[in-house]
Write a structure and sequence with these properties.
By secondary structure, chain B is mostly helical. Helix content of chain B is 73%, strand content 3%. Chain B has helices at 7-26, 29-53, 85-108, 115-134, 138-156, 163-194, 199-202, 213-230, 239-242, 248-257, 262-269, 271-277, 279-300, 305-325, 329-356, 374-388, 394-408, 412-437, 444-447, 454-469, 481-490, 502-524, 530-536, 538-545, 550-596, 604-625; strands at residues 62-72, 75-83. Classes of the chains: A mainly alpha (101), B mainly alpha (626), C mainly alpha (194).
């Protein structure tokens, strides 16, 4: 392939950045979660790109594990959101501000 | 037996411990236990005396080393006891009078809720006093010195619920402290200059050459300062009249017979220093003389029976210092012993009077008590006669000897002032007896007075015998017991030839004594309205009654500035500055926290922002390094 | 222009564009759909980068399972919930954007310094790394070099499943939101905590 690896990495960086900003800016818990998924995907892309650059499959293996962990994390996280929603009737993260001064 | 002399202070100390821990359980037996131990101490003292007198005159010094007390480098002080004729005389006086007063107290303090503690304190006091007089080195002596001061404080303020008593105890302690501080400086200087604190070393005749006489002046005066405090001489006498707030047995034991005489003992013991100095001797003489006259005058204007006796004590102590100043040390000790007997007798009789009058002390409200209280009246009369120096009684032998020596020394002024002081003492004690016992009852209490129980009267009787009999110890240089005993220790009494012949002296002293008594009977016996007389010279009366305003002077010069200083420190420095600093620090932290806690917004996204900020910063830092 | 270059330059803008679009959606379902588009583009990138196995896994697991799970939960919580626009902490958005820019700048410089814009992929990737096919080669790596982490992740999945079940377990009898509202029974009162 003839595309420089750096471009893939830049795309990955951009996705990561957008995900980060999304975590900061959105108030709905689900949307925050989706932004986190975006971040993870950016990272996965970078890993695969590096794997291609170095000529071994270590990066791809890591990506595999990353996906597994992301899946588990999504499961637990969504369960928590559902639980909190049941108690508080809100998915707005700003409403969960009891632990303050 | 000489080696068992440590029992003399140890027995009352054991009594203190026993009464301290088991006093409440013992109840009335606490008093008997304490008295028994004092009596045992007296017996031991007698046995020690027998052993010591068995020795030839030159060898009558026995040092007993109990244990090593302080060992710091080259500074070694042991707990050493010294038995010689002087300390022997002192322990006999203290244990004898002490035992009698213990027995008297069983009756006097009956019913008091802290009965056991009283006897614990009394025993402790006797233990310390005996340590003081038996001490072989100055530091051990100082231990006893401080100890008796402490016990004096505890006993004056025994009824501490009464503000007056608590204040009097405080005043006593603080005033004697001033003297004690000078004394401690003196003791330190003794060690620094003379290299040792042991009496054997320091009082050896060779010591005179070690330092110039000026040093000895300073040492003597510093030690005398301690004596001034403890023996209530001018200017540190102000605590003794107030100390009468304590129970009467305390006044009798501590403030008449024993503690106040510690100063006399000290001067007599260290007389070598005073003699080397010369100046110090004169100071002692003057202080004693002035105090004797001052106190005699003041005693005339007191209406409180105990205060009359308090000022009388001050005056008599002045006489003893007068004797010391004349280098008549044996005479001073004889007077000490005689005074112990008759002053204790007077105080205990006064206690008996108060007991019968329901604790009333105002002489104006007494009168005619000879009828309901004949025994007490008789005892008190004997004590009064002894104090006046009537011939045949112990007081005569003591006082007369002192005056005789004054006349022989050619100190005419001293002699005549001393005679005047003796006249005053007869006058005031006559006044006391007349107002209390003669005439008619002047109040309801006096009409319904009753005699005291036997347990209080018996010690009085024994003391009365002593007041009379101690004359036998007499002071005549040839036939007297005591001077012979004390001579080797204290130096021979000097005899001069200038002055009045002896019969004339005797006659004059008796004229003075009886004159004073008769004048008292004339003025206060009911013929003259002495209260009206007093009203006419009211400013003079007030002047004398208030102790020539010395107390007020001290109050203005020392106490008021001290209180002002304390108030300043407490309310300005402590309250405003220190508290404000502490509270201010706390408030500042609170303010800081109030601002700082706003970081905890409780919003997850703020925290996430913080994470990101940190991550970015970290990345930048790492990136800049590569 | 070779084939992979064309693919790259077509899908890169789609990827980034869908990500940004996801950010700006008010409606949660729309955002989820944009995310799915993004996940698809990433799968295409995997393909371009000679990782066909991951391409498949990405579509099946990520876009297929995880996003469907997301959509379920969005439905459960109510699709018509709109987000409040005003911010409690006024400096949140500007700071986030600023920091985002900062992150991207740092990554850019890192890439430039570490990799460089000229480097291309390793030569003869298909013969060396992907020998015998990508799944075979990947399994060689997974089951030999990284066997222990592999087993650990299986445990992780079980744990996650159990945790989710425990968290979501209702103590009372199962009752849906709709049934609640129909009965008018406030089994679960909204708790307003100050």
């Amino acid at each position: 392939m003839s595309t420089p690896i750096a471009y893939f990495l830049l795309v990955s960086a951009a996705l990561f950045t957008i995900g980060t900003v999304g975590v900061m800016v959105r108030k709905n818990a689900l949307l925050i979660f989706m932004s986190i998924e975006l971040q993870l995907n950016g990272v996965n892309l970078a890993l695969v790109a590096f794997s291609r650059m170095h000529g071994n499959l270590v990066g791809q293996a890591l990506t595999f594990f990353s996906m597994v962990v992301a899946a588990a994390e999504v499961v637990v996280g969504l369960a928590i959101i559902v639980f909190v929603f049941r108690r508080r009737r809100t998915a707005n993260v700003d409403d969960l501000s009891v632990l303050r001064w | 037996m000489l080696d068992l002399v440590w029992l003399v202070p140890a027995l009352p100390l054991a009594g203190f411990a026993a009464n301290l821990f088991f006093g409440r359980r013992l109840g009335r037996a606490a008093g008997w236990l304490a008295s028994l131990l004092m009596g045992a101490s007296f017996v031991v003292a007698v046995l020690v005396a027998r052993d010591l007198l068995g020795l030839p005159t030159e060898e009558r010094v026995h040092i007993l080393h109990l244990f090593d007390w302080i060992e710091v480098g080259s500074f070694r002080v042991g707990a050493d006891l010294r038995v010689d004729p002087l300390s022997l005389t002192m322990i006999l006086v203290v244990t004898a009078v002490g035992s009698l007063i213990h027995i008297y107290s069983i009756g006097y303090m009956q019913g008091d809720p802290r009965f056991g503690r009283f006897f614990a304190y009394l025993n402790l006091f006797c233990a310390f006093m005996l340590t003081l007089v038996l001490a072989e080195n100055l530091l051990f002596l100082y231990l006893g010195w401080e100890g008796v001061g402490l016990c004096s404080y505890l006993l004056i303020g025994f009824w501490f619920e009464r503000t007056a008593a608590a204040n009097a105890a405080k005043k006593a302690f603080v005033t004697t402290r001033i003297g004690d501080t000078f004394m401690l400086i003196g003791i330190s200087l003794v060690f620094l200059r003379l290299g040792s604190l042991d009496l054997s070393t320091v009082l050896a005749p060779e010591i005179a050459g070690v330092q110039p006489s000026g040093v000895f002046t300073i040492l003597a005066l510093l030690l005398f300062a301690g004596a001034i405090g403890k023996s209530a001489q001018i200017p540190l006498h102000v605590w003794l009249p107030d100390a009468m707030e304590g129970p009467t047995p305390v006044s009798a034991l501590i403030h008449a017979a024993t503690m106040v005489t510690a100063g006399v003992y000290l001067v007599v013991r260290m007389h070598l220093f005073f003699e080397i100095s010369g100046v110090a001797l004169t100071v002692v003489l003057v202080v004693g003389l002035v105090t004797a006259v001052y106190a005699g005058l003041t005693a005339l204007a007191q209406d409180d029976i105990k205060r009359v006796l308090a000022y009388s004590t001050i005056s008599q102590l002045g006489f003893m210092f007068l004797a010391a100043g004349l280098e008549a040390y044996a005479a001073a000790i004889v007077m000490l012993a005689a005074h112990a007997a008759y002053k204790a007798l007077l105080f205990l009789s006064a206690g008996s009077v108060m007991h019968g009058m329901g604790d009333e002390t105002d002489l104006k409200l007494m009168g005619g008590l000879r009828r309901p209280m004949p025994w007490t009246a008789g005892m008190m009369a004997i004590g009064a006669l002894a104090l006046s120096g009537v011939i045949g009684l112990s007081g005569y032998f003591a006082k007369d000897a002192i005056l005789a020596i004054a006349s022989e020394e050619g100190k005419a002024l001293v002699y005549w002032v001393g005679v005047f002081a003796a006249f005053l003492s007869a006058l005031y004690i006559g006044r006391l007896v007349v107002l209390a016992f003669l005439g008619e009852a002047r109040s309801e209490r006096a009409r319904h007075a009753h005699e005291s129980p036997a347990i209080m009267l018996v010690p009085l009787g024994v003391l009365a015998v002593g007041a009379v009999a101690l004359g036998a110890l007499a002071l005549d240089k040839e036939t007297g017991l005591l001077p012979a005993l004390l001579g080797p220790v204290l130096g021979e009494l000097e005899v001069g030839t200038a002055g009045l012949p002896e019969p004339a002296l005797i006659v004059l002293s008796q004229v003075v004594a009886f004159g004073g008594l008769l004048l008292a009977w004339f003025v206060y016996g009911g013929r003259i309205d002495w209260l009206a007389l007093r009203a006419r010279v009211s400013s003079l009366y007030r002047f004398l009654n208030r102790g020539m305003y010395v107390d007020d002077l001290y109050g203005a010069l020392v106490v008021a500035p001290g209180k002002a200083g304390s108030a300043f420190l407490a309310y300005v420095v402590d309250l405003r500055i220190v508290d404000r600093a502490v509270n201010g620090t706390g408030a500042a932290i609170q303010r800081l926290a109030r601002v700082g806690r706003r970081v905890q917004t409780g919003l997850v996204r703020t925290y996430a922002l913080a994470f990101l900020l940190g991550a970015v910063a970290l990345l930048a830092y790492v990136g800049s390094r590569i | 222009m070779s084939a992979d270059q064309i693919v790259f330059w077509v899908f890169a803008p789609i990827s980034i564009g869908s990500a940004i679009a996801m950010l700006f959606q008010r409606n949660a379902v729309h955002a989820a759909l944009f995310l799915i588009v993004n996940l698809f583009t990433i799968a295409v990138f995997y393909l371009v980068l000679d990782a066909p196995f991951l391409f498949a896994v990405q579509i099946i697991v990520y876009a297929g399972a995880i996003m469907v799970l997301f959509l379920f939960v969005i439905m459960l919580l109510g699709v018509d919930r709109e987000e409040v626009l005003t911010e409690r902490v006024w400096w949140q958005r500007p700071a986030a954007i600023l920091l985002g820019v900062g992150v991207f700048a740092e990554l850019f410089f890192a890439i430039r310094a570490g990799v460089g814009f000229a480097t291309e992929g390793a030569e003869a990737f298909a013969e060396t790394a992907n020998r015998g096919g990508n799944p075979q080669a990947l399994s060689r790596v997974l089951f030999r070099d990284y066997l222990f982490p592999f087993e650990a992740t299986s445990v992780l999945l079980i744990v996650a499943a159990i945790a989710a079940m425990m968290l979501a377990h209702r103590r009372r009898r199962a009752i849906t939101l709709a049934e609640q509202e129909a009965e008018g029974v406030g089994l679960l009162e909204p708790e307003v905590v100050p």
